[in-house]
């Protein structure tokens, strides 16, 4: 499904960007150009990014402390 019709940015592309490490609307906007034309998609894109960030699993390193810190 297209989130941003002006720039043909899909929900899948946004989810993939979050998985690749883009962690804010601004970062994803720079990468995918979502919301850079009419701007009507911004609330929907921001909601989707927020949901993706909440669902993103913590990296394994968050559960371990270095042995020689
Ligand atoms: S729908 Fe995204 S900028 Fe117009």
Textual characterization of the structure:
With 69 residues, the protein is mainly α. The protein has one domain: BFD-like [2Fe-2S]-binding domain (Arc Repressor Mutant, subunit A). Helix content is 45%, strand content 7%. The chain contains 3 helices and 2 strands. The chain has helices spanning 11-19, 25-32, 42-55; strands at 2-4, 9-10. The protein has a two-stranded antiparallel ribbon with strand order 1-2. A hairpin with a 4-residue loop joins strand 1 (2-4) and strand 2. Helix 1 packs across helix 3 (42-55). The site of FE2/S2 (inorganic) cluster has 11 residues, from loops.
Range of helix content: 40-55%
Tally the beta strands: 2
Compute the CA-based radius of gyration.
15 Å
The main β sheet shows up as:
2 strands, antiparallel
Outline type: elongated
The unique ligands bound to this protein are: FE2/S2 (inorganic) cluster
Class from helix and strand fractions:
mainly alpha
Q: What's the domain count?
A: 1
Provide the spatial order of strands within the biggest beta sheet: 1-2
Poorly predicted ranges: none
CATH topology: Arc Repressor Mutant, subunit A
